[in-house]
């Protein structure tokens, strides 16, 4: 049974295309063939092709496995959330009270 097709927003599609292009550039700069990276990622050449095109219907785990195969996985989970950081700072108590 085929996977459902995601209705990704234009912003998501744009980000995935950018990520895919960067993954392709990283592979080419390292002079690594698609077959080798696909094998290291436990995937197929056609899936790697779809990742490099930024296909939103490819599982995020597959993107991460390709990043790992290229040696560039570190830091992926670091999300920049300026608003969240500001809200955390605003919700901190002004002084610490001992718990009873």
Distance between the termini: 58 Å
What's the mean pLDDT score? 90
Radius of gyration: 19 Å
- Please give the CATH architecture: Orthogonal Bundle
Can you offer a commentary on this structure?
It is built from 5 helices and no strands. Helix 1 crosses helix 3 and helix 2 packs across helix 3. The radius of gyration is 19 Å and the shape is elongated. It starts with 9 loop residues before the first helix and ends in a 9-residue tail after the last helix. It has a single domain, classed as lambda repressor-like DNA-binding domains (434 Repressor (Amino-terminal Domain)). It has 100 residues and is an all-alpha fold.
SSE blueprint and pairings:
Layout: H1 10-29, H2 34-40, H3 45-53, H4 60-70, H5 82-91
Please sum up the structure shown.
The chain is mainly α and 100 residues long. The chain contains 5 helices and no strands.
List keywords for this structure.
elongated, single chain, 100 residues, 5 helices, mainly alpha, 434 Repressor (Amino-terminal Domain)
